[in-house]
Input
Amino acid sequence: MNRQLAIDVLRGSISADIIAAAEPRALVDFALRQGVAVLMRRELRARLDLETVAPVLASLLADAHARSLKRVMRQEEAIEGLRDALSVPYLVWRGLHLAKLLYEDPSERVGADIDLLVAPADRKRAIDALRAAGYSSSTNAATASHELSYTGNGVQLDLHWHMTRPQRARINLGAWLLTRGVLCNVTPVPDATATA
Output
């Protein structure tokens, strides 16, 4: 039921009567597990007066959106802090970077961590800089050939010195990106109070 309802909402084929009759907590819990709660809120608000039709659902989805915005803002603050802490060239990729490129509201994309890419030769200096900035690392044997995971400053961060296991790629894609200084313009995160 919740699966089909969520699909219908995201496709835009839903009526106010169906939304009003839905069990809000179960629907939001399902949407959160699928990573579409913020998208669901946007679609419902675009199609109907959600706050009037289903006030409990509106409130639960607004809370989910606010949490997602806070996550994005914590990640942006951490990235800004890393600008000063890291003394090596790096690239923020995937996660927040893609969210800002692909979504008007980057909080619509679920992203648990920040992915940083450095050149293999800069790995040791980047690790030292992250430790000095208050991040602690954990090692996963499955990914130790190309990344380390860190937590600190309210965020999770993956430090990559290869984009994939080194033996999987014909060329070092990370070095290719870093040497070209691939950059893009991104929009600021929307104000959390304006969309809540």
User: Anything to note?
Assistant: The radius of gyration is 20 Å. The mean pLDDT is 82. The longest helix spans residues 55-85.
